[in-house]
Amino acid sequence: MYKDNIFIEDSEKLINSSAVSEENEDENGIKISKVTVDTKTAKLINRNKGRYITISYDKDKAGEIVEELINAILKAFEDLFNYLKVSKKKNVLFVGLGNKDVTSDKFGYLTIEKIEVTNKMHKIYKDTLGITNINSVDFTRALSELLEPDLVIVFDSLKAEHITRLGNTIQLSTGGLYPGSAISEKKCELSKKTIKSNVICVGIPTIINMKDIIEDNPDLLVSSKDIDKVVDNMSSLLSIAINRLF
């Protein structure tokens, strides 16, 4: 249902050490963190190697900086295209993961609904394993084998460790993800290693575990009261950026 913690919370543990170097930008109230993780460092923080970009902003002021946010997202995609050495003109598959009937987990669904596809572009929404009885990684791999895309872009909800991340953070990465890992052990990895196509994962943190606030609530997942507005707004930002980019 819910997915990986956002990368920046893992990287913060090592940012000030020699293991991880971070590029930071701060403009118009938008903070952008860029981290490239090599194989050795990936083992230290239990993540895949790749490029991780995190965009953070004050959600109460988001309405005043919409164009700036869209431009930040566009630049992040261009950065990842360069890292992967792929072209936006290639065959692209967009995949939205989650549960469209659960507000905090419908980011993937809403984004896919708002993306406009043209030639050499495909989009699809994949519901949860509990509803479809189809593993998200198997589903994406089978579709990739059929369509043979040069790039797969996956949209999904994430879990945060800090409540301050809810509603104001967007993560884009080439490191893949593990669908359902926020509520179960990591089992199936969705990345280039498993689906044989270049992958960019885009996620927003929509829930936290209460144990990060109150230790005697280890299994309770909570979200913010305005999560419906947050998910709708962020899916609009991402889809507008995608529609301009492609």
Q: What would a concise description of this structure say?
A:
Helices cover 31% and strands 25% of the residues. It has 8 helices and 9 strands.
Walkthrough of the structure:
This protein has 246 residues and is an alpha/beta fold. The chain has eight helices and nine strands. Strands 1, 2, 3, 4, 5, 6, 7, 8 and 9 form a nine-stranded mixed sheet that branches. Helix 3 (66-84) crosses helix 8 and helix 4 (107-114) runs parallel beside helix 8. The model has no long low-confidence stretch (mean pLDDT 84).
Could you say which overall geometry the principal axes of the C-alpha atoms support? globular
* Strand residues, percent: 25-35%
Helix-residue proportion: 25-40%
Count of DSSP helices?
8
Low-confidence stretches: none
Task: Summarize the helices and strands and which ones pair or pack.
Elements (H helix, E strand, L loop, with lengths): L6 H5 L10 E6 L2 E8 L1 H6 L5 E7 L9 H19 L7 E6 L9 H8 L6 E6 L2 H4 L3 H12 L3 E10 L8 E5 L18 H4 L2 E12 L11 E2 L4 H19 L1
Parallel strand pairs: 4-5, 4-6, 6-8
Antiparallel strand pairs: 1-2, 2-3, 3-7, 7-8, 8-9
Helix pairs in contact: 3-8, 4-8
Notable characteristics:
246 residues, 31% helix, 8 helices, alpha/beta
